[in-house]
């Protein structure tokens, strides 16, 4: 059935089998005349039927109408209410004709502008153009929103920073350069560890090495390098790991100056903001100079000057091309690539730096190959050297002399470089060879001039493993090395070196001290008792004088640690620090003047302004000359005939005393010549008993080894009151043994004996001691 016939005969609503009256055309034309086009026909308006005029040809026009014709609501009623049925179906007529025309064109009918297929192509083009437009519009909208989001994030993190107009580059923390007595640098202290250097003072290839490996576009970007970030991302993706960073030198400087080392997105955003600010405030060369003086190189070294001194023992002004490449390579991973710990890793990284420098044209291929043939070699780590114990001691007391350190300073110390090396070598080699045999894990050595100036200070076996300064901080029992204060108090109370006391079993208020040899010699002089370190005689002396007299004597000579005034003090049960014990012995060596140990001689600024200069300071006379001579004679016999014979020095008049605490927990030797006083302590940090290490064996050997090296080339200086004759050796060698208390330890607080047993204030002879009277 033809379309127009079917359309004109549709059933009317509400009627069966009836067709809608209308004219049936012989041919059909779906195009509408201008009058029939649905351009917003109001429902209920008079229906106009366009009929072709027989007098003129009809124009074929493409129907153009809205896919959803406008409808007008009828006020006051429902749609179509009160309208003829023909008027109700007029709109349906128009839509049906349009649908039929659309199907006709899809089937090959002609449309506007050409054949049906051409119209389809033009319709597809319009659809494609419409889709592309949608994509473009969406991308623009998305970009706008992303920009807004980024701006918001940046604004938020910007608000977390201090006000930019108040932001300044913080001053570099002050550096403390610590020098030996001859001006040799022994250590740097402070957060930076190196003096600030100008860019113009450095060899040109040094800053170029950092640019080549860290930021090749340094002079081209504005603080943040999008190209560098993209390149780093691509390389990290292709290598499946983080092999390259995108931070510029300016960003790294911003992080070092103002931010923490946290690896967070927030910190990276703030880093970028600050990098932009730095680029606006400083020139490129100023930024590069700041960077080189602030970047961290590991091992506590901040700045290229500190790193050059730390790893190569020279100024950054003097480094070679290969050394410059190694320094630049450290920045990526300073701890992992430190040349003194990982020389292979540091060298491989330096090779990459040299290659990058050649690629950028900073050096020639010939120069790069030459540097590869002569790689940099790191010096022995200064950080592990024993001189750092002295440097730490300087930092502990420096503020007492100049107040808070607010500028770079140079501290001249009393350390003798040769003596310091000899002390470290003597202690370390002895512990390496015999420490296991004696069960000794640690040691300390302090050496003073007779005025108290510290010439050598070794606070432990290995500074790199333990920075605890046993020479100045550790509190240890001195054992028999405390006995000279007891004998000095006895001399000051009227006794003499020839006074005789009985070496035998004693009972002092329930305390029964014994000798290390477990044997007794009978009547002996005080000289022999001290030389042989006889415990029973020493205990009798403190009982005679009273413990408080001994405490006063020791404190007068410079002992500052608390001393318990009890009888067991005579055997060295109160703990002291090695440095104060050595300083107290100095009064014997210098003729009776008490000294205060000191390490700092002068403090000045790098340009020579003196901030502090030591003036001679001492405790005045603390021992009378005659008592000095007597004590030196008695202590001289310790090295000649007593427990310290292993410490005897060829060509020098030396004196000293061994010391061993209870259960062999501490082993000491304190000795001196007319020019140098030295003390050696050995033991374990946990106070674990040693394998019978006593002052007579390993400490005495270390003391002799050190003193022989330290005094080499010097003219012998006699002891005050000397020279002293050699006394006859002991008849029974078994009696000559140094050791701590043998037997049960003394009661916790053994005081003085009853008043009638107190020490008389006059000398007692042998007959008086044996028979009374």
From TrEMBL:
Q: Which reaction does it catalyse?
A: Preferential cleavage: (Ac)2-L-Lys-D-Ala-|-D-Ala. Also transpeptidation of peptidyl-alanyl moieties that are N-acyl substituents of D-alanine; [GlcNAc-(1->4)-Mur2Ac(oyl-L-Ala-gamma-D-Glu-L-Lys-D-Ala-D-Ala)](n)-di-trans,octa-cis-undecaprenyl diphosphate + beta-D-GlcNAc-(1->4)-Mur2Ac(oyl-L-Ala-gamma-D-Glu-L-Lys-D-Ala-D-Ala)-di-trans,octa-cis-undecaprenyl diphosphate = [GlcNAc-(1->4)-Mur2Ac(oyl-L-Ala-gamma-D-Glu-L-Lys-D-Ala-D-Ala)](n+1)-di-trans,octa-cis-undecaprenyl diphosphate + di-trans,octa-cis-undecaprenyl diphosphate + H(+)
Q: Which residues form the Penicillin-binding protein transpeptidase domain?
A: 449-673
Q: Where is this region: Disordered?
A: 1-81, 103-126
The Basic and acidic residues compositionally biased stretches are: 1-11, 28-38, 53-63
What does the record give under GO molecular function?
penicillin binding; peptidoglycan glycosyltransferase activity; serine-type D-Ala-D-Ala carboxypeptidase activity
* Ribonucleoprotein listed as a keyword: no
One biological process GO term for this chain? cell wall organization
The annotated pathway is:
Cell wall biogenesis; peptidoglycan biosynthesis
Which SUPFAM superfamilies does the record cross-reference, listed alphabetically?
beta-lactamase/transpeptidase-like, Lysozyme-like
Q: What is this protein called?
A: Penicillin-binding protein
Species, as recorded: Chelatococcus daeguensis
């Amino acid at each position: 059935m033809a379309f127009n016939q079917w359309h004109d005969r549709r059933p009317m609503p509400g009627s069966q089998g009836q067709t809608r009256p209308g004219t049936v055309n012989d041919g059909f034309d779906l195009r509408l005349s201008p009058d029939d086009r649905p351009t917003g026909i109001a429902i209920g308006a008079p229906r106009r039927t366009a009929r072709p005029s027989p007098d003129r040809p009809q124009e074929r026009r493409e129907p153009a109408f809205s896919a959803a014709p406008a409808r007008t609501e009828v006020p006051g009623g429902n749609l179509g209410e009160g309208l003829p049925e023909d008027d109700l179906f007029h709109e349906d007529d128009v839509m049906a004709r349009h649908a039929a025309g659309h199907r006709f064109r899809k089937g090959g009918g002609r449309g506007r502008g050409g054949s049906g297929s051409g119209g389809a192509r033009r319709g597809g083009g319009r659809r494609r153009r419409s889709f592309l437009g949608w994509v473009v519009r969406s991308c623009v909208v998305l970009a706008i929103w992303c920009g807004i989001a980024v701006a918001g994030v940046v604004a938020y993190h910007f608000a977390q920073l201090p006000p930019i107009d108040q932001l300044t580059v913080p001053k570099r923390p002050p550096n403390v350069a610590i020098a030996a007595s001859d001006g040799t640098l022994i250590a740097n202290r402070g957060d930076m560890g190196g003096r600030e250097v100008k860019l113009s003072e450095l060899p040109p290839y040094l800053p170029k090495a950092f640019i080549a490996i860290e930021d090749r576009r340094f002079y081209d970007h504005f603080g943040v390098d999008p190209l560098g970030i993209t390149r780093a991302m691509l390389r990290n993706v292709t290598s499946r790991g983080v092999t390259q960073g995108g931070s510029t030198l300016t960003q790294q400087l911003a992080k070092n100056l103002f931010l923490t080392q946290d690896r967070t997105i927030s910190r990276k955003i703030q880093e970028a903001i600050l990098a932009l600010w730095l680029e606006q405030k400083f020139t490129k060369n100023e930024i590069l100079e700041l960077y080189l003086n602030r970047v961290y190189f590991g091992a506590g070294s901040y700045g290229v000057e500190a790193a050059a001194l730390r790893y190569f023992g020279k100024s950054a002004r003097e480094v070679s091309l290969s050394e410059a490449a190694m320094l630049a390579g450290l920045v990526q991973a300073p701890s992992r690539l430190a040349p003194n710990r990982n020389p292979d890793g540091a060298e491989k990284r330096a090779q990459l730096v040299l290659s990058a420098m050649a690629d950028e044209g900073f050096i020639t291929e010939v120069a790069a190959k030459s540097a590869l043939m002569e790689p940099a070699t790191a010096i022995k780590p200064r950080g592990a050297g024993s001189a750092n114990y002295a440097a730490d001691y300087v930092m502990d007391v420096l503020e007492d002399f100049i107040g808070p350190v607010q500028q770079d300073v140079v501290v001249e110390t009393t350390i003798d470089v040769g003596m310091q090396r000899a002390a470290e070598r003597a202690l370390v080699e002895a512990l390496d060879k015999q420490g296991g045999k004696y069960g000794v894990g640690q040691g300390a050595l302090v050496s003073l001039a007779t005025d108290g100036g510290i010439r050598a200070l070794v606070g432990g076996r290995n500074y790199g493993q333990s920075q605890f300064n046993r020479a100045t901080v550790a509190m240890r029992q001195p054992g028999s090395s405390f006995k000279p204060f007891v004998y000095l108090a006895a001399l000051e109370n009227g006794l003499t070196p020839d006074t005789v006391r009985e070496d035998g079993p004693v009972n002092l208020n329930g305390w029964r001290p014994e000798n290390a040899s477990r044997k007794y010699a009978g009547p002996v002089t005080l000289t022999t008792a001290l030389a042989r370190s006889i415990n029973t005689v020493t205990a009798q002396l403190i009982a005679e004088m009273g413990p408080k007299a001994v405490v006063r004597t020791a404190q007068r000579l410079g002992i500052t640690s608390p001393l318990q005034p009890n009888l067991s003090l005579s055997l060295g049960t109160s703990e002291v620090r090695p440095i104060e014990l050595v300083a107290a012995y100095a009064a014997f060596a210098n003729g009776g003047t008490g000294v205060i140990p000191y390490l700092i001689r002068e403090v000045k600024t790098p340009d020579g302004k003196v901030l502090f200069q030591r003036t001679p300071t001492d405790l005045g006379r603390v021992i009378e000359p005659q008592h000095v001579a007597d004590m030196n004679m008695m202590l001289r016999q310790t090295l000649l005939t007593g427990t310290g014979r292993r410490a005897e020095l060829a060509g020098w008049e030396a004196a000293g005393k061994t010391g061993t605490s209870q259960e062999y927990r501490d082993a000491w030797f304190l000795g001196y010549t007319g020019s140098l006083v030295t003390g050696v302590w050995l033991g374990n940090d946990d106070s674990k008993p040693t394998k019978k290490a006593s002052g007579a064996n390993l400490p005495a050997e270390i003391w002799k080894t050190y003193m022989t090296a330290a005094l080499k080339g010097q003219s012998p200086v006699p002891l005050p009151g000397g020279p002293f004759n050699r006394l006859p050796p002991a008849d029974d060698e078994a009696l000559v043994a140094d050791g701590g208390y043998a037997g049960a330890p003394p009661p916790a607080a053994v005081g003085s004996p009853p008043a009638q047993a107190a020490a008389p204030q006059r000398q007692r002879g042998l007959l008086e001691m044996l028979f009374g009277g």
